[in-house]
Specification:
Structural class: mainly alpha
Number of helices: 6
Distance between the termini: 92 Å
Largest sheet: none
Radius of gyration: 67 Å
Shape: rod-shaped
Number of strands: 0
Length: about 270
């Protein structure tokens, strides 16, 4: 690059000198030779000066470039050191934060684990208490249902079992029926009274009246048999309702116990 610049300078100088010489009047051959020689020496000297100047300029440019390169190198080195220190500090901060987070996480995990263990123990204890309460209440329910069922069974068996009329109402009706002259009239009277007992839900008295008809007046009375079947069905329904009511009452107690446990848990 530097040699190209010098060459261009020399060529420009030579062309300008030649152009000036051509415009002057041609001297004599001897004079022209001397003049040309002197001119060549002058051109050579000036060219040499230009070359030296160009060399000096090149040296200055090189020195300036080297100076700039050194300055840039120093700046880059300085900035790189600063960046390295910043990165190092940031890395130390990140490492410290990670250690803190690790310790915090381990501490919280331990606390959660202990809390879960305590809660599980409490739940287990409460479930055991609830199970015992339910078991105890179920036993009470079973005993209550058994007692009620036994009472109902005895009552039904007593009502369904035929015996001589124990109530004065039935006995009085039977005695009154004898006032009628014929068996048909007695049966008709007693059927009417048995239906009265059914309408007032005195099913046991209705059964006793109908059974008296079958045993003493008309063994084939369809109306008497029908009254007995209806009365038995009504007594059975009443017995089942009583047993169901007792069971539901006992279960309500169990539900209350379970509800109390649920409220306690919350």
């Amino acid at each position: 690059m530097r040699n190209s610049i010098i060459f261009i300078i020399i060529m420009c100088f030579v062309l300008s000198v030649g152009f000036i010489g051509c415009r002057q009047k041609a001297p004599e051959p001897q004079e022209a030779a001397e003049e040309s020689k002197g001119l060549g020496e002058q051109i050579k000297s000036e060219a040499q000066e230009k070359i030296e100047e160009a060399k000096e300029v090149g040296k200055e440019m090189k020195a300036a470039a080297e100076e700039k390169m050194e300055a840039a190198k120093e700046v880059v080195t300085e900035k790189a050191a600063e960046v390295k220190e910043v990165v190092k500090e940031k890395a130390a901060d990140v490492k410290e934060k990670m250690e803190e987070a690790k310790e915090y996480g381990a501490e919280k995990a331990s606390e959660l684990k202990e809390a879960a263990k305590e809660k599980a123990a409490d739940v287990k204890e409460k479930m055991g208490e609830a199970a015992e309460a339910v078991k105890e209440k179920a036993s009470e329910v079973k005993e209550t249902v058994t007692e009620k069922a036994s009472d109902v069974k005895e009552g039904v068996e007593k009502k369904l079992k035929w015996s001589e009329p124990e109530t004065t109402d039935v006995q009085g009706i039977i005695e009154k029926s004898k006032e009628h002259a014929t068996v048909e009239e007695q049966v008709k009277y007693l059927i009417g009274r048995a239906n009265d007992f059914m309408n007032t839900e005195k099913f046991d008295l209705a059964i006793q009246t109908a059974q008296y008809i079958l045993q003493n007046l008309d063994p084939n009375s369809l109306e008497a048999n029908e009254i007995i079947e209806r009365a038995k069905a009504a007594l059975k329904s009443a017995a089942e309702g009583a047993a169901k009511g007792a069971a539901e009452g006992a279960m309500e107690g169990v539900k209350e116990k379970i509800g109390d446990f649920g409220q306690f848990e919350k």
